[in-house]
Amino acid sequence: MTEPAETPLLSARGLVRAFGALQVLRGIDLDVRAGEMLAVAGPNGAGKTTLLRILAGLMRPSRGQVRIRGEQLTRHDPAPRRAIGLLSHHTFLYDDLTPSENLRFTARLYHLPDPEAATRAALEEVGLSARADTPVRHLSRGLLQRAAIARALLHQPDILLLDEPFTGLDAPAADRFRALLSSQLDRGRALVLVSHHLAEAWELATHVAVLAGGHWALEGRRPDDLAAFHGRYAELVHG
Amino acid sequence: MAEFLRIAWVIAAKDIRLELRSRTALLSAIVFSALVLVVFNFARDPTAIAAVDLAPSVLWVTFAFGAVIALNRAFYVERENAALDGILLAPVPRSALYVGKLLANLAFVGVVEAVALPLFVLFFNVGIGHALGGILGVTALATLGFVAVGTIFSAMVVRTRFAELMLPVLLLPFMVPPLVGAVQVTAKLLAGRPLSEMMGWLRLLTLYDIGFVTLCILIFPAVVDE
Q1: pLDDT per residue over A79-124, tens digit each?
Q2: With contacts defined as CB-CB under 8 Å, which chain A residues touch B82?
Q3: Using the beta-carbon criterion (under 8 Å), do A94 and B85 form an inter-chain contact?
Q4: What's the CATH number where A163 sits?
Q5: Which of B7, B80, B225 sits opposite A109 (nearest CB)?
Q6: Containing domain of residue A164, as a range?
């Protein structure tokens, strides 16, 4: 993750985050360049979601900084946030609106030139066009996840932050999503994926890291052998 | 500035659409306001206090209670599925989010007041025709003040466990200055007093609005940031 090349799309230096006396992150550095995907694993409570929230600008680090294309992410300058798409545990969708209405609202927030066309394209991309006008509260978990993916990709962000993105997806939808992530990498996007099940996106990842005890217990290029990685992971996390 | 207002309107329009879809908060606030008026109407002794003396206080207590119910929903809708995070992710100024919420809340509270005012006239049999313009004006001034404060408190309490209880506890003390001013001006308007007698209260209401709207816009980004 720290190879000298072009400016990383996403970088972080010395990220520390404490909640009272509890220090969740203890100095995280990362660089993710165009076309790279960093897959982050770690036990429950390791701080993976906190890390993603800080990278997305939703949470301020106690110390350290996040840069988007070299530009520091601050709450005073909203412009760099345009480059970020976040797929979280939560869908960010309003239950009383339809996927179409939710996405149109998001498109207007991002000031996309044609909210209608962007909405149609995003729903088509995740295979949700047929349920575009069904209120979100009537969608199944899998369909909700597809709507959330459409929302995260709607503004074509250069950086995609994904928190357990395969949750709720059936096999065909998961395959479709993998193809979607692959196309994002081909387009030069930078991806950070957090998951307990790295096997779901192992082939796509260019780099892997294990977050434990608030710091990287392991980081580097993705090894070829997933089984060996699982063994190393168990050793690091469970001793 | 145009972009700021565009974003504020996008957020306000979304809130209005959501409320029109569910009608939960608006209907509750309207029914509650009507109930308050009914209770006051039957609880008062018309031989002891003239309706015109009691009317301004009753009107503003009704508006205030109705507003608190309407304001409770302001950020509650953003809590489901962490929708607020979705907005905070977007490249929009936090203060535009505040102004959008303020506009939507003004619309909701305005509707509650528009329904409560005729009911008030009906129950209390108070002629307001001669003072209607003035009453609408002072209603707009006072409502802007307490809705501005209510909107920011609504954002503050939404992440707490007892948001619905916390909002009135925090907001009611801040509602006292605009309510007192509005009651005084309304009483003088109903009594047909000259404008000069109300100027002090109108100045207070104007200063309250300018002060708190500005302050709320400035501090809102810190309120929603983690």
Answers
A1: 888 999 999 989 999 999 999 999 999 999 999 999 999 999 999 9
A2: 88, 90-92
A3: no
A4: 3.40.50.300
A5: B7
A6: 10-90+158-238
CA distances in angstroms from B216 to B68, B91, B111, B213, B222, listed in the order given: 17, 20, 23, 5, 10
Q: In degrees rounded to 5, what are phi and psi of residue A188? A: 85, 20
Q: Are A25 and A46 in contact (CB under 8 A)?
A: no
| Residue A172 placed within a domain | yes
* Three-state secondary-structure class, residue A58: coil
B58-117 pLDDT per residue, tens: 899 999 988 898 888 888 889 889 999 999 999 999 999 999 999 999 999 999 999 999
- Supply the pLDDT for residue A75: 75
Average predicted confidence (pLDDT) for chain B? 90
Token readout for A226 is 């997933």
Chain B residues with CB under 8 Å of A81 CB are 89-91
Which of A86, A93, A110 lies at the smallest CB-CB distance from B83?
A93
Mutation to test the B interface, candidates A109, A161, A167, most B Cβ within 10 Å: A109
On whether residue A196 sits in a domain, the answer given is: yes
In a domain, A208, yes or no: yes
